[in-house]
Design goal:
about 60 residues, mainly alpha, 1 helix, about 85% helix
Length: about 60
């Protein structure tokens, strides 16, 4: 099957568009992953703080 120059140009343009879309989506995925990791760190830190506070109440060592 032979393609015309116009068809080849259309395919080339579509390939470039797909590559650009892929790059954009990859960048968004990397950014969202970094955001998720930061949120997970915050949750871990808050869990630790909650644990220490609950231990203080359990041991009656909490002073407000």
């Amino acid at each position: 099957m032979k393609y015309t120059e116009k068809e080849i140009q259309q395919i080339t343009d579509l390939c470039r568009e797909l590559l650009q879309t892929n790059e954009t989506l990859n960048a968004q995925m990397i950014a969202m992953n970094a955001k998720l990791m930061n949120e997970e760190k915050k949750v871990h830190k808050l869990k630790q703080q909650l644990y220490f506070i609950s231990q203080a109440f359990t041991n009656n060592t909490y002073q407000a």
